Predict the structure.
Amino acid sequence: MSLAIETKDLVKSYKSKSGTINVVDKLNLQVEPGEIFGFLGPNGAGKTTTIKILLGVIYQTSGDAYVLGKEAGDIEIHKQISYLPEKPYYYEHMTGFEIMQFYASLFGIHDKDKCKSLLDRVNLGNDMNRPISQYSKGMQQRVGLAQSLLNDPQLLFLDEPTGGLDPIAHIEIRDLILQFRDEGKTVFISSHELSDVERICDRVAIINKGEVVAQGRLEELLVGGRIEITANNCTDATASSLRDDDTLVSMNHGRVIVDIPDSHSPNEVVKTIQGAGGEIVSVIPRRKRLEDLFLEAVTVDNRAKGRTIGTMTGKDDGTEADEVTA
Ligand SMILES: Nc1ncnc2c1ncn2[C@@H]1O[C@H](COP(=O)(O)OP(=O)(O)OP(=O)(O)O)[C@@H](O)[C@H]1O
Ligand SMILES: [Mg+2]
């Protein structure tokens, strides 16, 4: 069976005052059918741009993008995919039910019962006759999900589906996404909500400045935890002596917290602290989180390229730039 999504050396360039910028840079992605795939990266990493190429909304500058075995943008494939944008826009005077009927008509669907049952499915059945202007952010997000199911898609692109939602809404949306997978759909999620991604995604790709910096199954990427050693009565000199490339040390009023990879033995750290008169409070192992992997992958990549986290150097001068065509 072919991959649900595949990109090969995908590049998207824009011309700006400072020159040509690759906002997607030789991107290679492989998404298996039937999986929930997390597409992660800092702001401006190129996630939405990649999704727009996969949807056929914009064209790549070079490289290949395939969706359900066909080139991105293929009309036949459009019938089998759907998209929840990061900033959905609705006509606010319309009710949830009217919005659903409007989007259904774009697909040539005139089945009111289908619209109603999808609204029931996302728990909006009781509110479907209220105007969207009265919907909370979470309710609007749920209308978006209901709308994205109208064409019974095989592949869903969800750009930030849980952004800005309260914890209960997160759980509801996560559960719905898990149901989509149970129905055999492939779900491609771009998100900054790493705890949601960690709970529901089978595989992830982390991108930075348009390039993949980590990709794989979560259980494989998250091997190797950390050990946190906390001690009191420590001096700055002791804290400094413990710092190295793999060891994070924080110091506050004589209390030191030393964070080491679990491949290192904590005994050396404990001995050093005790030898200098420090008093061990705790030694706590913790498993690696997606947040650790994200920071590690992005920081290492930025360091290798001489960049600082969060800077947009040469990527975004705030002006709409010209596309560079292939
Ligand atoms: N039309 C355009 N002209 C010039 N630059 C653009 C254009 N569209 C996007 N970019 C730039 O491409 C980069 C990637 O943008 P993109 O929206 O794909 O990021 P993202 O990963 O989705 O970020 P976020 O997490 O903030 O949503 C940004 O630096 C952005 O300014
Ligand atoms: Mg985006």
In short: The CA atoms of residues 34 and 186 lie 4 Å apart. Confidence is low (pLDDT under 50) at residues 309-320. The longest helix spans residues 167-182.
